[in-house]
Amino acid sequence: MLVLENPIDAQTELSQLSQSELIVLVPTMGCLHEGHLQLVERAKQLGSRVVVSIFVNPLQFGPNEDFDRYPRTFHEDKTKLETAGVDFLFHPTAADLYPNGFSCSIEVGSLANRLCGHFRPGHFNGVATVCMKLFEITRAQVAVFGEKDFQQLQVIRNVVRDFNLPLAIVGHPTVRDTDGLALSSRNRFLSAQDREIAKRIPQTLFSVRKQSLENPDLTISQLLSEARAALAPLEIQYLEITDGPNMKTALPTSQVRHLEVPRIFLAVKLGNTRLIDNIALKEEAE
Ligand code: PAF
């Protein structure tokens, strides 16, 4: 595995690959877990060369968020990627990606202001900007993103569509721990007691899906109020059922069976740790 430390080295090295190679990018912020490794496996199936980027992107963190405490485990990550058979690891510094005078950014539009975006102003603009840079630097033909960050995946799909970027975006299903909790680099901040409480997140989401299939007359509002009760004492930032690729909020009086691509989304705070999750509400859509 070749480690590329800055954009120039990455561009030089990757542009020397034969035209017949298909480059697949897996963008990450490091602190890699099984979920990331599954993205790598998917990338290996999709193309002939896999590039993983590790960069904790300051642009996507707000002033009171966890940029400083975000876990950085570069040496362990590198070993995992070597073992997984990754070809290139791109690991730039913030000064390399955002040199003095850097002033452009991508404005994502209304999807960026809802759900996570409402609680993290500017977050998706920061994600879109760094992804645009990563796409340009690596010239990947495919990029793989996890569905745990489903809103991020949709934002990136919109950016690729709106800017006619020559790459395909592939979403990969969320990977869960044995207790159902979606794998996340932030799970390491949870104590054993937090972890017990956090289990309610997947339990509640899957119970909403079960209920909506077993009692199709239940309204969105009824499903969500039961879910809210089941999540206590977690501090809920949002809990919503949406429909369609632009994740429109479903009407409280409608039923899941009348939605085309229904999904339930939530964000909760457990102490200082923010956790998000989502699942499809129609079995065939998951
Ligand atoms: O999902 C992440 O880890 C980050 O948001 C990403 C896509 C690597 C951009 O910094």
User: CA-to-CA gap between the ends?
Assistant: 34 Å
What is the H/E string? EHEHEHEHHHEHEHHHEEEE
Q: What is the number of helices?
A: 10
Main sheet characteristics: 6 strands, parallel
The small-molecule ligands in this entry are: pantoate
Tertiary shape: globular
Radius of gyration, rounded?
19 Å
CATH architecture of the largest domain: 3-Layer(aba) Sandwich
- What share of residues is helical? 25-40%
**Text of the CATH class of the largest domain:** Alpha Beta
Give the strand tally: 10
CATH H-tier superfamily of the largest domain: HUPs
Number of domains: 2
Annotated CATH topology of the largest domain: Rossmann fold
The whole-number mean of residue pLDDT values reads: 97
Strand pairing plus helix content: what structural class?
alpha/beta
User: Could you name the ranges where pLDDT drops below 50 across 5 or more consecutive residues?
Assistant: none
State which percent range the strand residues make up: 15-25%
Strand numbers in spatial order across the main sheet: 1-4-3-2-5-6
